[in-house]
């Protein structure tokens, strides 16, 4: 796949909740710097992160607004519209930086304000 195809597929999988398809986009030795989860390396860790995503979000959409590609690098500015497992809304603008080699994501970093993610970062409150 071309860099653009990988990027398009990344967001297609996320928005469809196709986490197996999403995982297939990553190189076995990938590295990720995720603002909430921290520094991640390798598929075993990424599979664990996906399990966490399924637990903490009841809904998750990440819609790209701008895509810039330069060789094997890409930057995507997008908007996350999600809900915590308790149904609390999460709205955040995000920037993702990708390195893609041989049709696989080898590095990914994301950047955003953490305040909108408070519903998934704070302990559950009694209702």
What are the main properties of this structure?
single chain, 127 residues, alpha+beta, Nuclear Transport Factor 2, Chain: A, 6-stranded mixed β-sheet, globular
Description:
This protein has about 130 residues and is of the alpha+beta class. It has a single domain (about 5-120), classed as Nuclear Transport Factor 2, Chain: A (Roll). Helices cover about 30% and strands about 50% of the residues. The chain contains four helices and six strands; from the N terminus they run ααββαββββα. It has helices spanning about 5-15, 20-25, 45-55, 120, and strands at about 25-35, 40, 55-70, 75-85, 90-100, 105-110. A six-stranded mixed β-sheet has the order 2-1-6-5-4-3. A hairpin with a 3-residue loop joins strand 1 (about 25-35) and strand 2 (about 40). The chain is globular and about 40 Å long. It starts with a helix and ends in a 6-residue tail after the last helix. The model has no long low-confidence stretch (mean pLDDT about 90).
């Amino acid at each position: 796949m071309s860099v653009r195809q990988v990027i398009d597929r990344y967001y297609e999988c996320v928005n469809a909740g196709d986490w197996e398809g999403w995982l297939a986009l990553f190189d076995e030795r990938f590295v990720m710097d995720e603002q909430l989860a921290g520094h991640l390396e390798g598929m075993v860790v990424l599979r664990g992160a996906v399990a966490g995503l399924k637990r903490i979000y009841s809904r998750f959409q990440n819609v790209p607004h701008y895509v810039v590609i330069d060789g094997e690098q890409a930057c995507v500015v997008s908007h996350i519209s999600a809900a915590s497992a308790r149904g609390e809304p999460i709205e955040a603008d995000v920037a993702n930086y990708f390195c893609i080699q041989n049709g696989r994501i080898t590095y990914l970093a994301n950047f955003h304000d953490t305040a909108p993610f408070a519903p998934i970062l704070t302990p559950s409150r009694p209702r």
